[in-house]
Amino acid sequence: MNARIEDYALIGDEQTTALVGRDGSIDWLCLPRFDSGACFAKLLGNEDHGYWRIAPKGQVTSTRRAYRPGTLVLDTEWETAEGAVRVTDLMPQRDRAPDVVRIVAGVSGHVTVRSTLRLRFDYGSIVPWMRRSDGQRVAVAGPDSVWLRTEPHVDMWGEDFGTHSEFTVTKGQQVAFVLTWHPSHEPRPPLIDPHETLRASVRGWRHWSSRCRYDGPYRDLVVRSLITLKALTYAPTGGIVAAATTSLPEEPGGVRNWDYRYCWLRDSTFTLGALLAAGYHREAEAWRDWLLRAVAGDPADLQIMYGLAGERRLPEWELPWLPGFAESTPVRVGNGAVDQLQLDVYGEVMDSLWLARTAGLPNKPHMWAIQRSLMDFLKSAWRQPDEGLWEVRGGRRQFVHSKVMVWVAADRAVRTLEEHPDLQGDLEGWRAMRDEVHREVCEQGYDHRRNTFTQYYGSRELDAALLLIPRVGFLPPDDPRVIGTVDAIRTGLDHGGFTRRYDIDAVGVDGMPGGEGAFLACSFWLAQALHATGRREEARELFERLVSLTNDVGLLAEEYEPDLGCQVGNFPQAFSHIALVNTALTLFGEDQAG
């Protein structure tokens, strides 16, 4: 039986992450990067696919856990009949090698603790060779090598292709475990001091989180979302992955299981806006610079997503040996949507770079040249059908949101030239393009009878992405067409009081069987749209219901399934947390962010 998604917390070192369950088991860890093969894949399988559990040996009567305020350091405390024990989990900022540090501390009484480690490289498919060396355990298989040690020394033994230890702690006693990965052809990296590492990690995270400028309602959840976004950042390049996981299902038992350990361009403007408004200009600049490197090249080859360093080839394949979370198969690695045409990404890139310039981020000499190249391509290509924001696999259509974002691209190009007349560009041509796109969307993407914009030209379906029309400036919030669209989406895409992305039952659009939950980012967008159209109490009420869905440590997945009362989809999801931050800023005023 898998735990619920809500049962997991996140630790990480800004190059990879691990998911820790309430039962003290690390069930997901990819080393050395977010997109590497998992050495603990129990999340998508069972104990034979790798995990590391440290917990009381006896029966637990209660469990409490929390992050230390302002950090990504997790404390889990268990009560037993014999006493209480705490495990502190963290992944320190790495020097050369990634480390997982787990410190067991006696709180009261005397508690027997058991550690069970089952390393399985390549997503649970490879059992490594384990041996002793200098009082430590070392596991090797192909390119991977992992060392396990304790301070003070604790006896370990091998059993059932796992490494086990058992010991008793009393109040004040501590035992630290350190697991370190390195390439198997290299020597073991230098040992770290787990206790000093803990102190340094707490100091470093608290210094970082103290920079948050937002001081309004729900500040703790806003800070937690920003910490999560930081944890999903690949520090060497500044790229931000969409989630820490692959193949957590959008429907338990279903086939909508995708790999989100890559960087999506659709997130760019939302991410930049959240980072800039909250006071994290260095992180915003790093993301902007990653964006410029990723999109460099032929504008016709612009992709919707890239790898951590801007890699372009992300082929999709399946792992048939993994039974999937909640028996949801197939388990996929890579993402075939990388080959789709999504015209909206041109608007998102142009909007991001316009926002970066407006916010005063240091300019890059080649930035405007890249933007001009994107506009030159878009001017001749914008009339094409595409797969749209939601990466549907039912064929290309004239998606309205895509055309709105084409308008955004032209609008931001025009505004940049108007504000910076020293730059060169086709001002009149882009103005004409902007006007033509706007006119076409209002004529062909709007249903006059129902007073709502639709998912694609000539359709009756709705699309929650159209909630962004006032946000991007396509129409003002008080336009009757905007209000009608908000009302139509609020009713027509409602799912248990939250919002679906689109009608998944629409014939042929989605191209996939099964269903999905309410999309959390879209639900936050609805709160923003209600606020913009003057329904501020309703917006706040929806926001409060949304933040109540966070788990006990403040994390959100991609979706929520009201019928089952649980989170679904990859976890934690950057898009959900970015939407939480931006909605808090929208609802509670920019005067609370500075």
UniProtKB/TrEMBL annotation:
Residues 3-139 form the Trehalase-like N-terminal domain. It comes from the Bacteria. It catalyses: alpha,alpha-trehalose + H2O = alpha-D-glucose + beta-D-glucose. The keyword Chloroplast does not apply. Its EC number is 3.2.1.28. It is an enzyme of class 3 (hydrolase). Its cofactor is phosphate. Residues 216-584 form the GH15-like domain. Pathway: Glycan degradation; trehalose degradation; D-glucose from alpha,alpha-trehalose: step 1/1. GO terms for molecular function: alpha,alpha-trehalase activity. GO terms for biological process: trehalose catabolic process. It holds the Pfam family TREH_N. Belongs to the glycosyl hydrolase 15 family. This is Trehalase.
